[in-house]
Write a structure and sequence with these properties.
The chain is about 45% helix and about 20% strand. The chain is an alpha/beta fold and about 160 residues long. β1 (about 5-10), α1 (about 15-25) and β2 (about 30-35) form a beta-alpha-beta unit.
């Protein structure tokens, strides 16, 4: 069985993420979307909320499962018998960073990294940018799945209500 991991923070999941996950699902028998849980990083959504959103988004893909990891991605892969990591690349700058990560991951475990170029429609898209635009009232519909949009707007409104400027 050809099994791959699609790792990320997914805070929030964007249509760019969904694009890479759906394309990976056609290349591998099983794709495990690996939600990174780093307690040291401040996230807008909890790991559980990100997993819920991804579970809903990925429901149409029979061969996609959602899981989380804390620590090294290579340990996650080893524990689940995953030998391929799928990463989306938006620009050359992504490649510089991801190539180093891929080489380190290959040294740490029996894993190969496959780079998938992001569809041009999503090449500018990053979760951090989506959050920033939405925070200032910009329209991010079409950039995130509809049910994610509702949660994102509600969460940002909640944060704004607690932290008035």
């Amino acid at each position: 069985m050809r099994r791959a991991a699609c790792p990320g923070s997914f805070d929030p999941v964007t249509n760019g993420h969904v694009d890479i996950i759906s394309r990976a699902s056609t290349l591998f028998d099983e794709v495990v979307v690996a939600v990174g849980v780093n307690q040291a990083k401040k996230r807008l959504f909890t790991a559980g909320e990100r997993i819920e959103m991804l579970t809903e988004v990925c429901a149409p893909y029979d061969n996609v499962a959602i899981d989380s990891f804390d620590g090294l991605l290579t340990d996650f892969c080893r524990e689940r018998d995953v030998h391929t990591i799928v990463k989306g690349l938006r620009a050359v700058s992504d490649f510089d960073y991801e190539l180093q990560m891929a080489q380190m991951n290959s040294r740490l475990a029996d894993v190969e990294t496959v780079f998938v170029p992001t569809s041009p429609a999503y090449s500018f898209l990053a979760s951090s940018l989506v959050k920033e635009v939405a925070l200032f009232g910009g329209d991010v519909s079409g950039l995130v799945p509809d049910h994610v949009l509702g949660r994102l707007v509600a969460r940002l409104a909640d944060h704004a209500g607690r932290n008035p400027s």
